[in-house]
Amino acid sequence: MNEVFSGYQKIAESYGFLTEYNKADEELLIKLPGEKSQILHLRIDEEVFGFPLSDEKTSLESFIHIYTLIDIPFNSNSLPDLARLMNFINKSLEAPGFVLDEINTQILYKTVFFKPNEKINENTFMCLLGLISLYIDTFTPLIERIATGESLEELLESELKSLV
Fold it and tell me: What is the top-level taxon of the source organism (predicted)?
């Protein structure tokens, strides 16, 4: 395990998260709290980029991929409303990332961060884990309702009634 993964693992564990390094896929797995026991996959891709005006200047840049599969079965009849719901959810989030993978019939939350030459600091990393956990806990029940056959209109109507 490289130093950056080790650092993220130590941070997550210091806050009580269970972690595991998956050497085969080169991913850090972080178990989120909550009813669904989601597993976040953290992968780092490092690329060397040259600046366009100089052949001598290059820098190592990191792309930090974080994703989790959301285990909600759905059928093709619910696809239009699922897509509309995820668009509705994503446009209201500071860090949108709900994805409907129609080909593999999967729902996931995915985000990518660009971090030049270093790792995300501890506070930002923990805020990110908390934010993803909050998003999943908040929106998974709504996604499940659509996946099991409720229309988006019915869902929005019942949610609006519950606010009044």
Answer: Bacteria
Residue pLDDT, tens place only, 2-11? 888 889 999 9
User: Tokens 């040259």 belong to which residue?
Assistant: 50
Residue 157 to residues 36, 90, 98, 154, 164, Cα–Cα distance (Å):
26, 19, 22, 5, 11
The reported pTM is 0.82
β-strands 98-101, 106-116: how paired?
antiparallel
Nearest to 73 by CA among 137, 140, 152, 155: 140
Residue in 147, 145, 92 with CA at minimum distance from that of residue 159? 145
Domains identified in the chain and CATH numbers:
3-76+96-137 (3.30.1460)
CB count, 10 Å around CB of 69? Answer: 15
